[in-house]
Structure to design on (900 residues):
């Protein structure tokens, strides 16, 4: 994880938050979304709603989760905290450490590799001054991972920025895409 | 052939199995061993280690024996070429990242992975890649971690979820990054948490206080019984040259199954502390001197005789810890009788001694421990059962999960980790709340409560909670008084109302008893109103409370320290002119009030018998040698009897002592009870003293890991 990017509002992995962990940490909207998901599962199966709950909570927290937020989800769903941690650490779409607000991931699987995906990645790393898995010090860009095929081989090389696909990349188009991010 | 069974073949041998059984249960029963890591008969099936792959005819791939139900006509091969190849391949896979640091691993020599690697592993690894390293976790003072050794069987995770009821560990991350841990660093705080050490098939989770202290093959194993609560959990103590190194569970389906409470597992780490008494000591002119046994015993005998000379036998008292052995109790009673005193008691924790004849001759829970899981309803009055008797709490939890309606009437709300039907906490006090339940039960059944409780019940106002509890009780249910009730100033009232409630509803009545051997104390006659065989004494003596209020000239203490007494009765120790203490430990508090100290062995260092709360007699032999000059207490009592020139102390071993008692038990009366006409409700003036999970006796109080765990669980989440 990034050493250069520090978020003082959420000291991840620093232990449990001093305040009582209540579901009140969740926004009204997040709770509404979670309640909606809970209706889709039988009673007592709150564990099934963890992914959906974490997704909305992460979205509202600049794209990453903190232990207090995960604890809040556990409290809201009435589950052991560790069951929420298990899900949050298992799925690659969840970040459990502070990361930049735009998530960029470059595909380097076979098709993209043959079409220069690795050069695209190297260009990004040089341009941003960070390696895969790190975020820029200003908290703008998070170079999430080397993707293993996002099923866009016809447009290789490709990358995904905040869930949007960009295909037929060249260093110039990459520069433009990155510069247009806020 | 009934519909419930299927016929199949295991390695060519026809066997019969129940429908729905897994192959591994059938192969185990047929003595065809299948290697396994994640499978455990007490836990749910995970099927994630893949070690138990077996060949089944007409199935193209090997199948996990733990997760494949049997079917009629199935032909299972556990040792065929394909089965062995699959098992070997799994073993090779598991060893890719395992460090093979067996020489410095405490699990070495008793490791399932090591054993199976012997049987199913290759001589030489084909891998040259770097092994992964996993950072250690800090799970608190009881369990050490070497997570690099973990093979992700998830037994510890499932233990938390299914047995403890609080999942503290989880599988964090995925793929090669999978780790077992808590994610956010924290101690595991459950009172049964040490069992994950035994469950762990490798050396990832180990006994922290025992770390690097001995190797499994140099220790001798001694079967014994735990002396800290009334369940009487079976355990093995492991010793090197007479020193106890650790305790592990000894499977006993009727009591502790395969589990052991942390208190029973880690108490042995308090054996060899600084204040362990290793020589007899004598106070002369206010100064303590180490003396030889003869001098000390002479002084003890003289002190007791002088007290009789000054104040008569009534001036002499005998108090024993409720976790003393049956034989120790018996010899203390013998000693008291020989000196003419009936001032003898084990109920030092109690403050309310009213109505002693109402109590059953042998206190207990009224049902076998194993039957608890089949009960329909349980009402616990004044009980923190998780800390009082953790193993029994586990049975209650199993019952609750199976639909048993468990209710509590307590001074405060507890955290039970199982479904509770009703929990009445605080409110109008336990007596009034319990009386409300009784009134509800009587009304519902249209019967009257007995005259003596009429006053108590008439003022009660049952609410929905009381009604629910009253309605749940009936056949196949119990009403239990816990240790909070036992130490309550209104104990006798709670007892009378609870017993009446059980009588009216048809429920069985019982008590969680204090210490390991309250039943043994009652049988041996360590009570002022009932002698040997629990036969009423013609001339009752003083109970522990009366001894304190009337004062004594001479006092003999067995396994007791001032800390075991409630503050109300503690002055007794300071006021007595001669205090002879048979004790394994001598801290400042004891040194300040005793006159003769006779060093004795703990339950791990003596042979003896405990009678548990279901009435089971369990005899055991000593596991370790008492350090220094200390001797088993029964021997000290025997010799003390000789020094007092008394007959009847010529026993050669504890079996003889025990058998001497058995001959008295034919006339065991089951409570021919003269009850007072009326019992006046006494509300708890002050809340009962909380002894706490790790304060029950001197040994537990001296176990550093347990005390550290107690401190760590100050965390409200633990």
């Amino acid at each position: 994880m990034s050493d250069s990017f520090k978020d003082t509002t959420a000291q991840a992995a620093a232990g449990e938050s001093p305040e009582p962990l209540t579901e009140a940490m969740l926004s009204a909207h997040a709770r509404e979304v979670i309640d909606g998901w809970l209706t889709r599962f039988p009673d007592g199966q709150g564990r099934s709603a963890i992914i959906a709950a974490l997704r909305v909570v992460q979205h509202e927290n600049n794209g990453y989760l903190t232990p207090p937020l995960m604890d809040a989800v556990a409290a809201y769903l009435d589950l052991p905290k560790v069951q929420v941690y298990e899900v949050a650490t298992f799925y690659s779409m969840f970040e459990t450490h502070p990361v930049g607000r735009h998530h960029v991931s470059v595909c380097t699987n076979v098709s993209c590799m043959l079409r220069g995906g690795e050069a695209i990645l190297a260009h990004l790393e040089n341009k941003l001054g960070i390696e895969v898995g790190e975020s820029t010090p200003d908290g703008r860009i998070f170079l999430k991972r080397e993707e293993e095929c996002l099923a866009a081989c016809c447009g290789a090389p490709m990358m995904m920025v905040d869930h949007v696909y960009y295909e037929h990349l060249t260093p110039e188009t990459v520069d433009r895409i990155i510069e247009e991010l806020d | 052939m009934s519909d419930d069974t299927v016929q199949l073949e295991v390695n060519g041998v026809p066997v019969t199995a129940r429908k729905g059984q897994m192959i591994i249960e059938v192969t185990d029963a047929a003595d065809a061993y299948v290697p396994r890591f994640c499978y455990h008969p007490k836990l749910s099936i995970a099927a994630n280690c893949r070690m138990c792959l077996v060949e089944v005819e007409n199935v193209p791939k090997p199948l996990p024996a733990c997760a494949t139900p049997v079917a009629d006509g199935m032909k299972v091969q556990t040792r065929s070429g394909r089965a062995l190849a699959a098992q070997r391949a799994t073993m090779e896979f598991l060893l890719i990242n395992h460090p093979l640091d067996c020489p410095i691993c405490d699990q070495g020599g008793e490791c399932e992975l090591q054993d199976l690697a012997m049987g199913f592993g290759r001589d030489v690894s084909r891998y040259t890649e770097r092994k992964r390293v996993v950072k250690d976790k800090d799970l608190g003072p009881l369990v050490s971690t070497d997570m690099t050794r973990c093979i992700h069987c998830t037994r510890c995770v499932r233990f938390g979820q299914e047995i403890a009821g609080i999942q503290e560990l989880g599988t964090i991350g995925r793929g090669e990054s999978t780790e077992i841990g808590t994610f956010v660093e924290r101690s595991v705080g459950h009172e049964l948490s040490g069992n994950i050490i035994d469950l762990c098939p490798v050396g990832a989770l180990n006994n922290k206080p025992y770390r690097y202290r001995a190797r499994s093959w140099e220790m001798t194993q001694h079967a014994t019984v735990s002396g800290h609560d009334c369940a009487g959990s079976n355990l093995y103590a492991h010793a090197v040259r007479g020193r106890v190194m650790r305790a592990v569970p000894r499977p006993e389906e009727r009591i502790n199954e395969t589990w052991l409470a942390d208190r029973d597992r880690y108490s042995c780490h308090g054996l060899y502390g600084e204040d362990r008494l290793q020589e007899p000591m004598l106070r002369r002119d206010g100064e303590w001197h180490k003396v030889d046994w003869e001098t000390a015993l002479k002084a003890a005998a003289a002190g007791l005789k002088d007290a009789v000379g000054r104040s008569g036998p009534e001036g002499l008292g005998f108090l024993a810890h409720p976790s003393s052995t049956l034989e120790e109790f018996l010899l203390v009673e013998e000693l008291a009788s020989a000196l003419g005193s009936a001032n003898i008691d084990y109920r030092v924790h109690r403050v309310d001694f009213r109505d002693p004849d109402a109590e059953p001759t042998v206190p207990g829970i009224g049902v076998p421990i194993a039957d608890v899981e089949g009960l329909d309803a349980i009402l616990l009055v004044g009980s923190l059962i998780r800390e009082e008797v953790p193993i029994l709490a586990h049975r209650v939890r199993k019952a609750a999960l199976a639909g048993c309606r468990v209710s509590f009437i307590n001074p405060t709300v507890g955290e039970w980790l199982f479904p509770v039907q009703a929990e009445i906490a605080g409110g109008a006090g336990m007596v009034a709340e319990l009386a409300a339940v009784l009134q509800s039960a009587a009304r519902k059944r249209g019967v009257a409560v007995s005259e003596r409780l009429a006053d108590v019940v008439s003022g009660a106002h049952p609410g929905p909670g009381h009604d629910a509890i009253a309605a749940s009780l009936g056949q196949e249910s119990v009403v239990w008084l816990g240790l909070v009730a036992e130490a309550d100033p209104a104990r006798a009232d709670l007892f009378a109302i609870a017993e009446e409630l059980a009588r009216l509803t048809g429920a069985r009545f019982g008590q969680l008893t204090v210490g390991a051997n309250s039943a043994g104390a009652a049988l041996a006659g360590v009570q002022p109103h009932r002698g040997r065989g629990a036969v009423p004494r013609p001339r009752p003596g003083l109970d522990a409370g009366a001894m304190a209020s009337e004062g004594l000239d001479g006092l003999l203490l067995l396994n007791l320290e001032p800390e075991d007494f409630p503050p109300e009765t503690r002055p007794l120790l300071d006021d007595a002119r001669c205090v002879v203490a048979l004790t394994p430990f001598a801290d400042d508090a004891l040194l300040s009030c005793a006159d003769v100290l006779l060093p004795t062995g703990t339950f791990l260092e003596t042979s003896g018998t405990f009678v548990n709360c279901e009435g089971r007699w369990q005899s055991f032999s000593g596991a370790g040698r008492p350090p220094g000059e200390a001797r088993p207490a029964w021997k000290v009592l025997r010799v003390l009897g000789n020094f007092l020139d008394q007959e009847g102390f010529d026993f050669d071993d504890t079996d003889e002592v025990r058998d001497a008692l058995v001959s008295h038990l034919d006339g065991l009366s089951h409570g021919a009870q003269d009850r007072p006409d009326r019992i006046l409700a006494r509300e708890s003036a002050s809340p009962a003293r909380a002894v706490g999970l790790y304060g029950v006796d001197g040994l537990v109080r001296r176990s550093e890991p347990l005390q550290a765990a107690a401190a760590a669980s100050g965390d409200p989440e633990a």
